[in-house]
Amino acid sequence: MQSTTKNYELEEIDLLLTDANIATMDSNINAPYGAIENAAIAIKNGEIAWIGEQSTLPSFDVFATPTLSIKGQWLTPGLIDCHTHLVFAGSRSQEFEQRLQGVSYEQIAAQGGGIASTVKATRAADREQLFVDAKDRLNTLLKEGVTTVEIKSGYGLDIENEIKILEVARLLGEHHPIDIKTTFLGAHALPPEYKGRADEYIDLVCTDMLDQVVANNLADAVDVFCENVGFSHSQTKRVFQAAKKHNLPVKCHAEQLSNQHGAELVAQFNGLSADHIEHLDEEGVKAMANAGTVAVLLPGAFYFLRETKFPPIELLNQYKVPIAIASDFNPGTSPLCSVHLMMNMACTLFRLTPEQALAGVTRNAAKALGLDDRGILKVGARADIAHWQISHPSQLSYQFGVNKLLNLWILGRIN
């Protein structure tokens, strides 16, 4: 491993981490997990200023530099949850109980349940309630070593409440150590007041709704639920075209329940990611590979809905499509607020390796958000670093429920 440095004298650095084993997740390093053993990291101004084998560490003034020994334990990039619906109100635990008692989803929906119940509760909630509830969920992720989270709208389904959700998400980013990226998902479901008028609702999403989101700088990307119970291929395309006019990157809930060719469509727009993808076919995989679109696996929803159709992992590997993993935390289909559980599920359910799972919540999750400054520990990257009491990085996927996080730095600051 050849160490590198930025234009800092090491006497000037803010923190030096020594005696570490580092899973850099840098694919340019020819070792599993991009590992560097017996290593050190120097941090300056929230970035990594130097990283490499400790034996090659340049001389520095030990008395002027705050130093922490990692004592042979492991450092990884801060974890990234690249697909969540974190801002919502209400609970659907009673529906969960009903389904287990044999009540169908259609019957629950006819009673005003399903996503309509979450929309109703979220519309009724004020910003303070939404902020407090979402902050608690973020705190849970922070304790797991998560340093970046994507938050989608989609439970407002009108201009006022979609704006409200995105404003709360932006506010969380200002008042929480986790870095927040926001995604406008106005085309999540058809609101009850537009029943039978899906094209009219898409008109609203593409014009007034998106215009206000952009005018207030509330979204980093645009997403659509392209599905036979969501929005059609042509309706999804209209939203992507509108997003393109505003220079916003696109993502897609694609091929979750059927193959609507949403992955191919999002790839045509050079989209960031296609998410769920259980019903993805080879043509869709090829399109994603050619466009550099990330495949985001959501094993929590697969598990919670007791699905049986597996995403095409072998095809994704064959065509070298980057694979990310996310919680899809939401009240209806994945009320599971744990990235570590998702890593374990990705290995046990989808047969990913622990190294693939860790890449899925670090470098590939960053790529799914269009971010190139995190997810890898290298010179110039954000100093988002997790310190684990583990003997090998595979433990992060192997074990669930025992938190091995010792320290967490975000932009070089301890949290």
TrEMBL record:
Binding site for 4-imidazolone-5-propanoate: R92, Y155, H188, Q256, T333
Alphabetical keyword list: Cytoplasm, Histidine metabolism, Hydrolase, Iron, Metal-binding, Zinc
GO molecular function: imidazolonepropionase activity
InterPro entries, per database record: Amidohydro-rel, HutI, Metal-dep_hydrolase_composite, Metal_Hydrolase
Pfam families linked: Amidohydro_1
The protein's required cofactors: Zn(2+); Fe(3+)
Cofactor note: Binds 1 zinc or iron ion per subunit.
Domain Amidohydrolase-related: 75-393
Pathway(s) it belongs to: Amino-acid degradation; L-histidine degradation into L-glutamate; N-formimidoyl-L-glutamate from L-histidine: step 3/3
Ribosomal protein keyword on record: no
Positions with a binding annotation for N-formimidoyl-L-glutamate: Y155, N330, G332
Residues at which Fe(3+) binds: H83, H85, H253, D328
Residues that coordinate or bind Zn(2+): H83, H85, H253, D328
EC class name: hydrolase
Gene3D superfamilies: Metal-dependent hydrolases (3.20.20.140), Urease, subunit C, domain 1 (2.30.40.10)
Family: Belongs to the metallo-dependent hydrolases superfamily. HutI family.
Cross-referenced NCBIfam families: hutI
Protein name per Swiss-Prot or TrEMBL: Imidazolonepropionase
Gene: hutI
